[in-house]
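Look at a sample.

——
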Amino acid sequence: KGVPLPVLLEELPDVVACVVAGRRHVGFCRIPAAALLKEQMRGAPTWHRLTAEAARGGLGDENPGALLLQLGLGLSEDANDPHFRWDDLGLLEKFADKRPCCVRVYVYQARNLPPATAEGLLDPYVKVRFCGRKEKTRAHAHTTNPLFYETLDLHALVPRDARYGPDVVLQVWNRRAVGRRNAAICSLRLPLGDLPELAHDTARAPDPRWHGCVDASGRALATELLCCAARIRKRDAKEKFSKPPSIAPLNRMAWVEVTVVGVRRLRSAYGSSPRRPWLRFDVPAPDDKGDGGGTFRTPASAQPSGRDANFLVRRVLQVELPEDPELAPRLDIRCFDSSRVGAAPLLGSCAVDLRPKLPWNPVDYVAPQSELFDDAQARALAEQREREERAKAAKADEDDASDEDAEPGNVGVSFGAGDGDNDDLSSSDGESVVHRELEVRGDAGRDDGGTGAFGQDMLDSLPPVLEDARYREELALREEAILHEQGEERRGLLETLGARLAAAADVGEAPGEPQYALKDLDIDFPSQWAAADFVDGREWWLHQESGELEKYLHTRPFETYTLYRGRRHPNPAKSTLREVGHVKAVIRVLDEDPQFSEPLFPLSVLRVGTYAVRVYVIRAANVEPQDGPTADPYVRIKLGDDVQTGAVRRSTLKPDFYECFEFSTRLPGPAQVKVQLRDHSRWRPAHAVLGESRLDLEDRWFHRKWQGGGGGGPKGGATR
């Protein structure tokens, strides 16, 4: 049908196909016009996934299905050309020519399922649909990472050309209580033409892989399903197959060592703080009999508080884990509160991926206590890999463009090329125009590094900024002062601290502005700390490193796992899923019994004690203006339930604070220091947060290098 269309490719509308059953709108699919033009009226029939029309009273959480379409878009002259004519009868014959077939689906695992209950869990099972038939697995109770290891067979008549057959649909459902309708959680589609064909019904299963899932509206989720499928040809429709072989993995004996420190910043779902929480750790069994799994629970604790309870226990679970690391299960962590009458309510849960913890996984193995304090190094490596990939993609585009210029192309559509004459079908001018416009549209969303319309070469040619040159000079002077400090003999704690604060205060000061010395600052530096036990033998750090402590400690001693509670809803406004706390622990997997070996983290180090914490706030820079060209910043610091605020600095974006805040805390216990910079306002009850930084004291105080640093510093490049 002839339809007037715009000349420019980017102005072409998409093609939308809708499926309507009576007055009920089932769903729709959208096909980009640019993709149809590129196929040049020669596109084969393709299955398109339908999206439910929620605004028109669609199917709700039901699967709207898919639509097999053959579409073409081009000039009227191309549609009338014999070379582009479709063989309608031949297509119908291919679709009608069917044979008996069995589609065998292998369901292994699921991970990161969206919670469907208020406790943040669900009872999932997988339902497979194909050609009007359906099969389902058994349901697993209270988990978001189930292990299925089941094989499902679906028998049907399918076209001999598998490209014209329907997709295999796998849906994850949540089993509800009796009397309530089960709910679909997510789904994925496997094209029939992409499935391999097995020689017989006892053949080995194909290699599984993880497939991403989508919700009922077609939005991608973090949920993944480990599965695969295959086609088995049948001699006739009545042929019976034997029971498929088991797909349970081959396991080996392993030991899971769990050192639990406690929970931090735990919140209850009942409006009050938790009183006596406890944790349960579960390694699921790889088979239906429950053999090979392991579980243990910690004692209930309220010390030093239910919100930050310490457990300080170490347990070793003897379990069976798969030889194939890709099939490794997830360790479930669940937090309960035993303060209430009756069954202990579930406060939150999470799952720990054991794949990177398996010592027989040479590709993804990560040693325990390898989490960095600062992910700047990881971000730099990721950015470098991204730049390399962009450079390779740009080079490939250049090579493709040169090949297109050198060789003649196929018949194309010449929207806006020359005078509109398209009689010469052998010309490649139209295709060049189309492909160039497609490339321009494809590159529109590419990351440009934040330089906008200016490339990096143009930015490098711009004249230097005076402030940048001055800042580099100041950094050079500061570095020279630090190097001079390192060359001197060891001095006392206060003297070294004063030199470093003085160097920090000098950076950014313009000529004529006041200079500060340590003795002039309004800070009560405690001289008695110079002889404290925690300083004895550790002054070497201030002299030798002269940098941040985290750069020496490098990695965190504990692993932190976030607890979640609530259910996910397709409408984010109705979703109740949220963080309710964190678990501090160290988890490692061993291939030999650690009973007679030294533990990874000795519990003797975790002696509970009361500590004084002093936070020194010197200054701030580059403060964001609020309500005009300036701001009224002040410091707010929180440690546990103790909150302290500093004085307000009026009308400045470079405030000098020089304040000291002192807290008292118990370690292990409430250890997160949250430092906020806020803007004071007389007219707003909630002051705007200008910036925030968080510091975990436990990760630094109980670090092996810091605890063993009392011997005068590292010897031979290592610290005991």
Q: What stands out?
A: The longest strand covers residues 98-111.
